[in-house]
């Protein structure tokens, strides 16, 4: 008398047969890291490759004759670094200049150390390259010039800014 095969053995053999007929393709997609921050009511991000470090706002030293885009400088381990006011650069003059709880994101740039003043650091994430999308045509015109891509984060749209373009605007 032949033994009846176990139900689990039958299921496993069906899975094996299915796997032989279906080609399963695994894609090893590169991830990109982003520093997500809030500025006013908007979410923005810098690519991880552009951001060097995040510092708590502890005050700035005002520079006479400096434009409103550069509210001051900080001493960063013995080096002087200019701090850029991102709200001013992006034309967000309607938002408050409240700096309590603010942060300075230090940016990699060819011409020295620069910090960018932001309201809040939201998160540091890694997302697959395929999840970044082209900038929507409906994006606020003030931000379009500096935007390189967008992605969704917790049901909110995050606009990725090009730090080099921001610094270029200040230097021009």
UniProtKB/TrEMBL annotation:
<protein>
    <submittedName>
        <fullName>Positive regulator of CheA protein activity (CheW)</fullName>
    </submittedName>
</protein>
<dbReference type="InterPro" id="IPR002545">
    <property type="entry name" value="CheW-lke_dom"/>
</dbReference>
<dbReference type="Pfam" id="PF01584">
    <property type="entry name" value="CheW"/>
</dbReference>
<dbReference type="InterPro" id="IPR036061">
    <property type="entry name" value="CheW-like_dom_sf"/>
</dbReference>
<dbReference type="InterPro" id="IPR039315">
    <property type="entry name" value="CheW"/>
</dbReference>
<feature type="domain" description="CheW-like">
    <location>
        <begin position="31"/>
        <end position="172"/>
    </location>
</feature>
<dbReference type="GO" id="GO:0006935">
    <property type="term" value="P:chemotaxis"/>
</dbReference>
<dbReference type="GO" id="GO:0007165">
    <property type="term" value="P:signal transduction"/>
</dbReference>
<dbReference type="GO" id="GO:0005829">
    <property type="term" value="C:cytosol"/>
</dbReference>
